[in-house]
């Protein structure tokens, strides 16, 4: 593998959902500026607690999605299928 390979970064931009199609970047979501959903709120509260971080209930859908990704990486949750 070449030293400048970016395999570690591939999960950020080209992730795929269960349908196999690339997921849209949260910043491109039409409803991304709306309040986070109930399930996002619940999961983010759990992840925040596990990571020892403060839960911010004022996040938008897009911000919550990005924060969930960040906290999943930190806590190891959501890494398996």
Give the helix level as a range of percent: 40-55%
Q: Give the termini distance in whole angstroms.
A: 26 Å
Alpha-carbon Rg, integer: 14 Å
What is the element string, with H for helices and E for strands? HHH
Q: Number of DSSP helices?
A: 3
Low-confidence spans = 1-21
Major sheet characteristics: none
> Could you tell me the strand content as a percent range?
under 5%
Residue-averaged pLDDT: 78
Structure, explained:
The protein has helices at residues 10-13, 38-51, 61-75. It is mainly α and 81 residues long. It has a domain at 32-81. Helix 2 packs parallel to helix 3. The chain is globular and about 30 Å long. The protein starts with 9 loop residues before the first helix and ends in a 6-residue tail after the last helix. The model is unreliable at 1-21 (pLDDT under 50).
Task: Provide the descriptors you would attach to this structure in a database record.
81 residues, mainly alpha, 3 helices, 41% helix, disordered N terminus
Q: In terms of topology, how is this protein built?
A:
Elements: H1 10-13, H2 38-51, H3 61-75
Helix pairs in contact: 2-3
Quick overview of this protein structure:
With about 80 residues, the chain is mainly alpha-helical.
């Amino acid at each position: 593998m070449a030293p400048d390979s970016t395999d570690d970064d591939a999960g950020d931009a080209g992730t795929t959902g269960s349908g196999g199609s690339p997921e849209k970047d949260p910043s491109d979501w039409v409803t991304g500026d709306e309040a986070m959903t109930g399930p996002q709120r619940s999961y983010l509260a759990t992840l925040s607690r596990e990571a020892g971080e403060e839960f911010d209930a004022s996040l938008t859908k897009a911000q919550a999605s990005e924060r969930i990704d960040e906290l999943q990486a930190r806590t190891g949750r959501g890494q398996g299928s």
